[in-house]
Amino acid sequence: MKRNLTMTIGPTRQRGIGMTMILGVLAGIVVIGAVLALTARNGSNSPLDKANEALVGGLLSEAANMRMGFDFMQSNGVTADNITFDKTATTGLFHPTDGGTVEFTPPAELLENTSASWQMRGGRFPGVGTDSGTDKVVALAEISQSACQMINDRLYSSSSIPVLSSVDANGSWWGSSSSVLVDLSGEAGIDGRAATCLETSDGVYVYYSTLAEG
Known about the structure:
Layout: H1 11-42, H2 47-75, E1 119-123, E2 135-143, H3 145-156, H4 169-172, E3 195-199, E4 205-212
Antiparallel strand pairs: 1-2, 2-4, 3-4
Helix pairs in contact: 2-3
């Protein structure tokens, strides 16, 4: 004699299964919407762009680490003017114990000139801190336009790149002369910012970040 093994699902359980399916669909819609929104904000979802965004994040972290190292050295009695951009004992920002900042080479994927490197500048930079005080900044010149846009998007949620009316990149930002000062006051979208990526009057993209503001 065969028994009928058919199981009847009651109304309450049916409603529970139906609600679970509905919630699953809604969760899927939310995830898809978030992905589309992120894609629209970033302009592209290509693996290359995603990789470069990660590299830009590392670049911003490096600038932040240099700022923390600078603060650390000053708290230990080293004056801003005596801090050096090297691994010299006592004064070097990149000294393993006295400075504590790990030195990284900027990723070539973000550079127009793959030999470009971080430079530290000290002097009076109007538009950074108090216009009459002495400031310390780090700058990385000759980065790519797309990297510059990503930096500003990370910092200010806008990929717009401010353009300087008159600052020569070679002499002011990464040239051999450390005495050249950059006047950022009165420049739209730049004046008063502790960090930003900009375009110089000679068409070079420069990212700068302050280490100490006078």
